[in-house]
Amino acid sequence: MSADIVVSNFVSADMLRFLPEIILTAMGTALMVLEPILNKRTSSLFGHLSIAALLAGIAGAVVAYQHGGLAFGGMLRVDGFATFFRVLVMVVGILTILPSYSFLKRQDAETGEFHALLLFSITGQCLMAAANDLIIIFIGLEISSIASYILAGYLRDDKRSNEAALKYFLLGSFATAFFLYGVALVYGETGSINLSVVHDLVAADPGIYGALMGVAAALMFVGLGFKVSAAPFQMWAPDVYQGAPTPVSAFLSAGPKAAAFAVFLRIFLTGFAPIGRAWEPLVWLSALASMTIGNFAALRQTNMKRMLAYSSIAHAGYVLVALTSRSEVGAAAAMFYLGAYGFMNIGAFAVVSHLSGRGETRTSIDDLAGLGQTQPMTAAMLSIFLMSLIGVPLTGGFFGKFYIFKAALDSHLVWLTVLGLLNSAVAAYYYLRVLVVMYMRDPVESAGPVEPLTPGFRLALIVPAIGTLFLGIFPSWVLNFAGKSAALLK
Amino acid sequence: MTVNLLTVVLFLPLAGFLAALCLPRASSEASRRWALGISLVTFVASLGLLGWFDRSTGGEQFALDIPWVASPNIHFAISVNGVSLWLILLSTLLTPICVLISWRSIRNRAKEYYAFLLLLEFGLIGVFLAQDLFLFFVFWEVSLVPMYFLIGIWGHDRRIYATLKFFLYTMTGSMLMLTAIIYLYNLAHTFNYWAILRMMSSGEIQLNSQEQMLLFLAFFIAFAIKVPLFPLHTWLPDAHVEAPTAGSIMLASVMLKMGTYGILHFCLPLFPNAAHRCSGWIAVLAIIGIIYGALVAMVQPNMKKLVAYSSVSHLGFVVLGIFSFTQQGLDGAVYQMLNHGISTGALFLFVGLLYERRHSLEIADYGGVATVAPWLSTAFLVTTLASIGLPTLNNFVGEFLVLQGSAIANFKWTVWASLGVIFSACYMLWLYQRVFYGPTGEAVRSHVSDLRAREWVAVLPLLAMMVWMGVYSQTFLPSVGKVTAQVLVQSEVNVPYRVETRPHAEVARVR
Question: What confidence score (pLDDT) does residue A489 get?
């Protein structure tokens, strides 16, 4: 890829390539303004408007893709890769809003802010997906993070939610600082923050840039590793996921993570690709540690949200395996996996949101006892998500895992593959335990009846379930797109 | 034919499963009837398969190959050969029997139960048909899920422990197999079994001996867990004892054969050198399994556990036969797979019937059943005799062939393995004596009744098969023999190195 930065003469084309972000920001701001005007009775309007904005944003992303290319002097790069992640985070957004209708109503916390913040956060993630410039990445990261810090503490009266927000904020800012330090080093060394330029400079003479770029890569790895909750930067995840309102936990585990991985892939497979040998062992170790720590810690959890948090650490490990393979196949596998993971994990969290009850008192695994009898539909959907998380064939999770480990074997990472796959056999245990509780135990009378499924929840379960099965039975379509986009990465 | 009959046989149970999910929850009668109907239709369709199968060749027939995923290149490739044909018939025969046998005993959540039974049938048939390694893996895992629920929901007291153990054991093995499958794909760029085999014999893919050994072990461990081969058998007694009757039957009769079929169909032809190198060790493990299984069965106070351990012993014969690398041994192994499916399936069925009546699996709770249920006792006796290998009944043929084959390979193996035959007579006849003879207790007298019409319908086909397979093995063995002969040739081709020792032309003749 040549380093020529196309300075577009057509501002309108720049705007088209920036369309999703424009739509989401406009709607986010509008919601803030509308908040005092609309009274509480019409509060579901906020959700409707956000979903409409996200759908428009997806359409905008498709339009942007059709007019793909560099924008704003090479700061954005709208290609298949960017579009894939833009659409992914916006779909994640929709799947977050669907269950939050009833959830917020139940907690008496329906406000426009929630949706506005969500839209802002997604805007940041879209920006990250399309960024081709380290500063833009940083800005996207901050937009996304600051909104999600507030979202994590959205239930003001809840101590745990406050704790989650504070923890997430303090550790998150610290991690972002590391990332920024890495950016500074890259700039100091190469004199550029444009990824394409950095790549060309480093590729031309890895010897000169090697050492300092290695340090920069390590620093950025710390920052991004935090965002994707990879070991050893995973400490925050269980507390934050447990404390945050459940739809927000679902969002955190899928949206920001996918965007952070997009950045991960973009930076490490372009700018840092020439010094791949240097960072590969680092990522290798982190991948293995994430899988092992996540899976083994999840074995002992009794709280559903905490268990899913540890499982999301493990899943970050799987995606890091794809990054370790340092290949286009690996990037495509990571993309596919994040897509499948978005569906299955959000679906699982949606079930928890549905069942958690007022004040989120019912989030332990034992609370699911007898769900197979009391709510067969919910139980069946959760089974699909869990099967996918285990990696049973005909679900998206299986194909995702399969592609990742195929990519790893392609790059001769035999031991990482064997250890990773054995890890997923360990993981089967804690997912199966949930199935056991749901189907093989009788409902606990004292727990009181489970609320019936509201239309919002119903959609929030069915859509991800269809997505999970679709990716598991007809993976070609998404995979081909991912493969094509990953090839464009360089 | 425009419609491939094989796809009909494969997808009928799946369609049945999906439709069964839509049946009303309240009416378990509807679910039962639906499952029975679908499984019978599937059985009839599979008989059609038998009718149109060209037994003069025994090779892969009814082949179908549809691209499924473009990249990686995954195909929906299925076909049936002289061995898998019988295993499919075994599955389709046993599924309606399982439905019949669960008719009264399953009252709780019947809809899901019968749905899972149909899904299980789909998975099992798929495993025996798949000619694409990836597809094989898919079916391998898919069959695991319904069994997990069957044991976990409708099982006995320790069902949860048993079902988790079952799932995790198999899953661990599967993961190793998946690694090996991906590794092979990265070499061959196809999952098609026959294409990989061709590339291996023509030298397009060359594995060094260490690679071959590791790949062989990855496949073999997955299969050995399923068989189960000593010392990987510990999940089996738990799963069998805790499973509902139909679960035990399907598990013992068909699911265990997934392992032995896998060894025969994949391990031997793909990794012949490694298989030859390990054969001694594996044979020893098989013999330990034969003797150990029999000895442990002898001291079991629980009928189901006894039959479960007898399975370990019987499956030991199958593995021994396969790793004797002789025509007789392989034929006997396949035949023994079918025999065990029929006779152990029947044993589990009878144990289930007794449990349904007396609500106990403890041998000590029985005695004198023969006086109150003479027909049940007679049928059980026939099955017992079949199981211990009485001539004119099915197991005799299989055991004889296996022992003959192993004698050709290594006479010492035969000596030790024959001990298992003797022990099997001991534990089975002792079981029969304690349960059916002796004074009739009050509980037995008041609870145990003779076979009902519906139960007769389930039992008779199995008894008929025992006699048929014992008296006229020529119905089955020729088509089996053609396949096993081919396997043998393939597994001899590259000793010590397939590529260098055999020119291309000769291999082509083999195929």
Answer: 60
Enumerate the domain spans of chain B: 5-510
φ, ψ at A160 (rounded to 5°):
-65, -40
Q: What is the pTM of this model?
A: 0.87
Q: Determine the 3-state secondary structure of B236 from DSSP.
A: helix
Instruction: Please report residues of A whose CB lies closer than 8 A to that of B181.
Output: none
Residue B48, chain A, CB below 8 Å: the answer is no
Whether A1 is covered by a domain: the verdict is no
Q: What kind and span of H or E run contains B83?
A: none
For residue B94, give the nearest of B242, B245, B244, B253 by alpha carbon: B253
- From the list B109, B167, B179, the residue facing A428 with the nearest CB is B167
pLDDT band at B389, cuts 50/70/90? confident
pLDDT in tens, B465-496: 999 988 888 888 888 888 888 888 877 754 43
Whole-number Å distance between alpha carbons of A82 and A76: 9
Nearest CA of chain B to the CA of A203: how many Å? 28
Output the average pLDDT for chain B: 85
Count structural domains, chain A.
1
Q: Residue B61 — φ and ψ, nearest 5°?
A: -135, 170
Instruction: Tell me the nearest-neighbour CA distance from A356 into chain B, angstroms.
Output: 25
The tens digit of pLDDT for each residue in B152-169 reads 888 888 888 888 888 888
Q: Is residue A299 part of a domain?
A: yes
Model pLDDT for residues B223-264, shown as the tens digit of each residue: 999 888 888 888 888 888 888 888 899 988 899 999 999 998
Contacts of B178 in chain A (CB under 8 A): 402, 405, 421
- Alpha-carbon distance A67 to B85, whole Å? 56
- Give A424's contacts in chain B (Cβ within 8 Å): 175
Distance between CA A437 and CA A457 in Å, rounded? 21
Predicted confidence (pLDDT) at residue B507 exceeds the cutoff of 50: no
Query: What residues of B are in contact with residue A390 (Cβ under 8 Å)?
Result: 171
In 3D space, the residue among B180, B175, B203 whose CA is nearest the CA of residue B191 turns out to be B180
Closest CA–CA distance from residue B477 to any residue of chain A (Å): 35
Task: Please report, as a single letter, which amino acid is at residue B162.
Answer: A
Say if B151 is an interface residue toward chain A (CB within 8 Å). no
Asked whether the beta carbons of residue B148 and residue A480 sit closer than 8 angstroms, the reply is no
Q: Does any CB of chain B come closer than 8 Å to the CB of residue A377? A: no
Predicted pLDDT at A41:
65
Q: Mean pLDDT per 10-residue run, chain A (490 residues)?
A: 46 82 92 80 81 93 87 86 92 91 81 89 93 91 92 86 90 91 89 86 77 87 91 88 90 92 89 82 91 91 91 93 89 92 92 82 83 85 92 88 89 87 87 86 72 83 92 87 76
Q: Give residue for tokens 């510990």.
A: B234
Give contacts of B153 with chain A, Cβ < 8 Å. 372, 439-440
* Within a domain: A435: yes
Q: Inter-chain contact B70–A436, Cβ cutoff 8 Å? A: no
In whole angstroms, what is the distance from residue B258 CA to residue B84 CA? 10
Cβ–Cβ contact B164 with A under 8 A: yes
Domain membership of residue A105 as a residue range: 11-488
Name chain A contacts of B144, Cβ cutoff 8 Å: 392
Nearest Cα to Cα of residue B367 among B437, B289, B430: B437
Please check whether residue A25 lies inside any domain of the structure: yes
